Amino acid sequence: MNAPRAILLVKCPDRPGIVAAISSFLFRHGANITDFDQHTSEDEAAVYFTRLEFQTDRLDLPLDDLEKAFALDVARPFAMDWRLTLSSRRKRVAVLVSRQDHALLELLWTWQRGDLRADVIAVISNHEDLGPAIAPFAVPFVHVPNDAAVRREAEARMLGLLEGKADLVVLARYMQIVSADFVARFPNAIINIHHSFLPAFAGADPYRQAYHRGVKIVGATAHYVTAELDAGPIIEQDVGRVTHRDTVEDLKHLGRDLERRVLARAVRWHCDDRVIVHGNKTVVFS
After folding, report:
1. Domains: count for the chain
2. Mean pLDDT per 10-residue interval, the chain, length 286 residues
3. What is the pTM (predicted TM-score) of this model?
4. At 40, is the secondary structure helix, strand, or coil?
5. Which of 31, 133, 161, 163 is most buried when burial is the number of CB atoms within 10 A of its CB?
6. CA-to-CA distance for 128 and 145, rounded, in angstroms?
7. How many whole angstroms separate alpha carbon 218 and alpha carbon 255?
């Protein structure tokens, strides 16, 4: 019972027999399913999604061999897009940040408390400001200056620090554009957080713009990063209500609170293998 759990994520065209094929396969090889969730899209070409966990202590095959057998016996006949991971394999997370600390510190607190199944391997910033705040967490802090004039050199240096070492890159209010080439190195493995006023209040000082329009809600969106700016698959969102009594600073305070909580949830769900990307949408088994 001390053996790690295995997590299976599956996406495939919907058809009868999928659940029976998966469960029968696992039963034959000694697995005990402990958690199971599923969803079928309502599109014309229905797609089936599932996430399940099973115990590995009584498997009759090493996990690598079980993967090969699953690929041949189940995944191939049902045209599955799938992955199998162990709960003991913690994802390696790197965080990119600029000067605002709220989203970063929430992640570090969540990780330090043991609520994030991951290892934070580095914090990279285009400014030196947050070095002292990060020091108590004993996480390497790397200053990589970055702006439009030096973007290619900066990203080359960051890729040298990240490729082969980080499974997930988190943009915790990193106030720089990341290039399409950088994004391509981490497909569905870069998560960004921003306010949810887009596209209505783009540009500088969106909270002040929203205040002058008399908005009644403030929100935050966490999504995977794609080559198209702020248009990747959304993982998590949340909102908070505001009234005519709230000032611009009140809106900003609420926005920061939403951003840090939404980002932490999105990162935790990714690290727990609870997210399946389908086109420009996600299925999140939260």
Report:
1. 2
2. 87 97 98 97 91 96 96 98 96 98 97 96 98 97 96 97 97 96 97 83 84 92 93 96 95 96 98 97 96
3. 0.95
4. strand
5. 31
6. 9
7. 6
Catalytic-labelled residue, pool 57, 119, 230, 246: 230
Tell me the residue length of the chain.
286
Same domain, 37 and 162: no
Domain of residue 51, CATH code: 3.30.70.260
Tokens standing for residue 185? 């190195």
Whether residue 64 lies in the annotated active site: no
103: left (phi over 0), alpha (psi -120 to 50) or beta: alpha
- Nearest Cα neighbor of 236 from 274, 185, 206, 186 is 274
**In which domain, by residue range, is 216 found?**
91-284
Same structural domain for residues 216 and 148? yes
H or E segment to which residue 23 belongs: helix 18-28
